[in-house]
Specification:
This is Regulatory protein RecX. It comes from Halomonas lysinitropha. Modulates RecA activity. InterPro entries: RecX_HTH_1st, RecX_HTH_2nd, RecX_HTH_3rd, Regulatory_RecX, WH-like_DNA-bd_sf. The chain is built from 9 helices and no strands. It is mostly helical. The chain folds into 3 domains: about 50 residues, Arc Repressor Mutant, subunit A, CATH 1.10.10; about 45 residues, Arc Repressor Mutant, subunit A (Orthogonal Bundle); about 45 residues. Helices cover about 65% and strands about 0% of the residues.
Length: about 160
């Protein structure tokens, strides 16, 4: 276990625990934050291995938490996947998080695309330009082409 360095400086573990107390972090994010605080890369790697072994840091848990928060924001699977990769998660971890979300009933991307579109726009649009605007909106939020098409056809079915 890494102890407190002399001179009143905080250890990588102390800094990591402080960060993890607020929210989940991926291993890469945590390593970057600890490096920015001036900790040596060897002590960072040792600390992160220790935290993972103790279950205090988990890329799987981070992925699930991140995915859930982005679904609540109305973002699509393409954007979420790219963001998770950017945060240093492997494809298998990402795939597992999406599968868990789907099993929990959180990953109905067609319904989410419809809800996001209906929340932002009052109807499908009268002109090709307006319909294209709605398509761009969903595409920028990370929805796939078939999800965009479905939402354009069904977002206002219950209105």
């Amino acid at each position: 276990m890494l102890g407190q360095p002399s001179g009143g400086e905080s250890s990588p573990r102390d800094d990591a625990i402080r960060l993890l107390a607020r929210r989940e972090y991926s291993r890469l994010e945590l390593a970057e934050r600890l490096a920015a605080k001036g900790h040596a890369s060897e002590s960072i790697a040792e600390c992160l291995d220790e935290l993972a072994d103790q279950g205090l840091q988990s890329d799987d848990r981070f992925a699930e938490s991140f995915l859930r928060s982005r679904i609540l924001r109305g973002q699509g699977p393409l954007k979420i996947g790219v963001e998770l990769e950017r945060r240093g998660l492997g494809r298998e971890v990402i795939r597992h998080a999406f599968a868990e979300s789907e099993q929990a009933g959180e990953g109905d991307w067609f319904t989410l695309a419809c809800e996001s579109l209906a929340k932002r726009f009052t109807g499908p649009g009268d002109s090709p330009r307006e319909r294209a605007r709605r398509e761009r909106f969903l595409a920028q939020r990370g929805f796939a082409f078939d999800q965009v098409r479905h939402a354009l056809e069904h977002a206002w079915d219950n209105a």
